[in-house]
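Good day; I would like, with your permission, to put a structural problem before you. A protein sequence and the structure tokens that stand for its backbone fold form the material at issue. The record follows directly beneath this note:
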Amino acid sequence: MEYRKLGRTGLDVSAISLGTEYLMEPSPEEVMGVIHEALDRGINYFDLFWPQPWFRDKMGAAFAGRRHEALLAAHLGAVMYDNQSGVSRDPVLAERFFHEFLTRYDTDYVDLLYLHNCDQQEDYEALMRMDGLLGQALQYKAQGKARFLAFSGHTVSTALQAVQSGHIDVLMFPINLVGNAVPGKRELLQTCAAHEVGIVAMKPYAGGKLLQPNQVMAMESWQVGGSAIELRRAATITPVQCMAYVLSQIGISTVVPGCKNVDELSQALAYWDADEQARDFTLPLAGFQQAIRGDCVYCNHCLPCPAEIDIGATMRLIDQARIVAADTILTPELRAAYAALGHNANDCLQCGDCEERCPFGVQVIERMEQGVELFAG
């Protein structure tokens, strides 16, 4: 397992973690099997948004005796109406379900507390009030009941405001192949990197649609972080390719695939043993015909480089530097990461081999020149 920093929290989080959305129906024994397998294989981050007491009881039992191995993420505002899950901005109702979470998971605190599922501007303004759920979450943090605050949503505009507010340490947002060209998504990821806000990538399979055999896929906005779209798939897509795409993007701390059994968990974790050919996501991404021409997706399909530059890693740092440089000087962390590459934009021979291989028409030489200028001095 690889571990990454969860933004400015300083927590080390497993790069592939676990979303528990599909563990509602399995038996307590099956749930325990999935959770224990995940822990045994090095997963330490678990997203837990279902408010139903029977779900929380199953999960609480699964973590019994192993709470110290796990980072638990709860969602403030995730409530239940007539046995069904729902969203509420009522502080009284939100408090009831939050404290019930602590009781049923037999814990005194949560590692991350999400401001839950906000997509509309009016809802954002209500959620982020000091006499609303934001103020309530800040109180829980001061009381030691929540270590860090986070925000979950599916709309670039509200997610961006949350990141820029300074109140949240982590953003959970849909990141997947089909949402690659969602307007503003790249800027959102870069802004998270600039503010040291960790990114938890949800919906890596677009709600399971990417793994289905049907050729035409109708995507709802919540699955991709943008407008509802219909796409025709040109190639079969695997869980490994989905993991590879997400983990290659700027600022991603961890990805949380939903797995309903151990077999599905193993399919996601197969990424770690997969070779570069199995991880290559360029064919399915290009097949959607919605990848933005000229935008690097850090796939390294342009390699090998005669100057031994890791072009994907270099381009990722250049993209981060471009948005940071618009507001302030480059951070020491960015400069250190650039220097640590060994071979970077300064070593570019401008041979053009990479541009000939790039499936997305990226002007690599021009971008390398920008990188030299950005990191000069």
About this structure: Residues 311-374 form one domain. The chain has a mean pLDDT of 89. The chain has two domains: 3-280, 311-374. The chain is about 40% helix and 15% strand.
